[in-house]
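Propose amino acids for all 453 sites.
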């Protein structure tokens, strides 16, 4: 009997030594299984992210790791309990991993946190959505610059007509999608030169370098559009992508090499060397915290799965004269008649992604042309021409909550955060530009869709 109890205790003690492995398994299950569909598993981004983490990560080995990431993980886990958004769960899981790393290696610098932010799906989503007005502005700027050279240029939305040749600047083109790539390259350079000169840059200088990198990337995209139009390089060709890569290297990466090196050498502070080294001794408290957190993450994830908004169907939808009204999965209402197709896509909260028409229609095989922002009856909306082989449609979209109509992502998200009624994405499509114009004017003037918002 005594031997049996002794064996159990000895087994528990041996298992206790493996608690870091058990914690890693819990985090791995949440990240790679629970968040598999949320995380962006792009090979280029993963490789650049790993390189950036390698060069930017350093530890103050004389200082013990703090519990700051533990409490951050706890806060986001509680937020996930209240609002089951995968972003909160992902942040909580990553903070838990950082807390465990600091437990063994000492206090970590802030650069790896910035790298993880840049690798996140939220960062890419923000770049793609909130940079959309910049993309349209770049098209206009490129047209004005080309016009200075004496060429006949006309710009309509994302369409540039140069000397009778039409060129479409894809609103989701490769150029600004390289913002994430450029950001990770910039972080890698910062980490590399800090290691080379054994200096560390303040947060202010790091953010300044990243801000300059963003400006360089915008300038690079402007030059890229000019080159593509002047050299008649059409989308879908190899040279179209090669031109984007060349502009990124010449106008972003190369200037960053010299800029980062100069700033790190001149303004970096020497790294203080300490003889004392942090060694993990009493691990009872840290053992408990590092085991409770991943266990809580796993349990909360299993019992509090995000609401499957994509499968929700609205009920009790009122009818509208002249339209066939149908409720579709994803809290979507479709109104259809002989000339119009209207989608009303409800957005549950400010932190949700919306069913952007530029994604949905592209999934149906349509290409976007003449994408532009217009002012209609005092409301700003987006309009575009959809084309699939010989099939041409005209579409418009905006955000509406029954009281306010806007095309601004920032405005509707801010309004909802301040307590406004939730918004919906309204997408109206017609077979002709005249039909679309009449339909949009009537909808916005008479607020005909308010009953569905």
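Proposal:
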């Amino acid at each position: 009997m005594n031997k049996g109890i002794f064996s159990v205790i000895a087994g528990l003690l041996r298992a206790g030594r493996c608690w870091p492995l058990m914690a890693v398994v819990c985090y791995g299950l949440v990240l790679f299984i629970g968040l598999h569909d949320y995380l962006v598993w792009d090979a280029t981004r993963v490789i650049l992210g790993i390189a950036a983490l390698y060069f930017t990560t350093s530890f103050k080995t004389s200082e013990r790791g703090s519990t700051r990431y533990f409490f951050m993980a706890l806060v986001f886990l509680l937020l996930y309990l209240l609002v089951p958004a995968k972003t909160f769960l992902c942040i909580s899981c990553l903070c838990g991993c950082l807390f465990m790393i600091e437990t063994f290696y000492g206090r970590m610098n802030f650069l790896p946190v910035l790298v993880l932010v840049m690798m996140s799906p939220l960062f890419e989503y923000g770049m793609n959505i909130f940079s959309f007005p910049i993309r349209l502005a770049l098209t206009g700027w490129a047209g004005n610059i080309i016009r200075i050279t004496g060429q006949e240029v006309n710009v309509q939305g994302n369409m540039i007509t140069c000397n009778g040749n039409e060129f479409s600047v894809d609103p989701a083109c490769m150029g600004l999608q390289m913002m994430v790539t450029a950001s990770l390259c910039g972080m890698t350079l910062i980490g590399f030169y800090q290691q080379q000169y054994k200096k560390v840059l303040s947060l202010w200088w790091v953010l300044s370098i990243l801000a300059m990198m963003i400006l360089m990337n915008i300038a690079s995209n402007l030059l890229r559009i000019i080159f593509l139009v002047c050299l008649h390089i059409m989308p879908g060709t190899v040279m179209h992508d090669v031109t984007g890569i060349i502009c990124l290297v010449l106008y972003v990466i190369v200037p960053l090499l010299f800029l980062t090196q100069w700033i790190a050498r001149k303004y970096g502070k020497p790294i203080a060397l300490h003889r004392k080294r942090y060694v993990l001794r009493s691990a009872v408290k840290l053992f408990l915290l590092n085991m409770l957190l991943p266990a809580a993450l796993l349990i909360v994830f299993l019992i509090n799965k995000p609401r499957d908004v994509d499968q929700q169907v609205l009920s009790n939808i009122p009818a509208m004269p002249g339209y066939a009204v149908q409720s579709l999965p994803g809290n979507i209402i479709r109104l259809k008649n002989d000339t119009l197709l209207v989608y009303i896509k409800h957005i549950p909260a400010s932190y949700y992604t919306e069913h952007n028409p530029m994604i949905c229609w592209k999934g149906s095989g349509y290409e976007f042309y003449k994408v532009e922002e217009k002012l209609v009856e005092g409301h700003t909306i987006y309009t575009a021409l959809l084309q699939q082989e010989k099939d041409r449609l005209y579409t418009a979209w905006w955000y509406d909550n029954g009281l306010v109509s806007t095309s601004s992502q920032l405005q509707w998200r801010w309004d909802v955060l301040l307590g406004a009624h939730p918004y919906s994405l309204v997408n109206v499509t017609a077979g002709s530009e005249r039909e679309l114009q009449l339909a949009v004017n009537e909808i916005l003037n008479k607020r005909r869709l308010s009953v569905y918002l």
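Residues 238-267 form the longest helix (30 residues). The chain has a mean pLDDT of 81.
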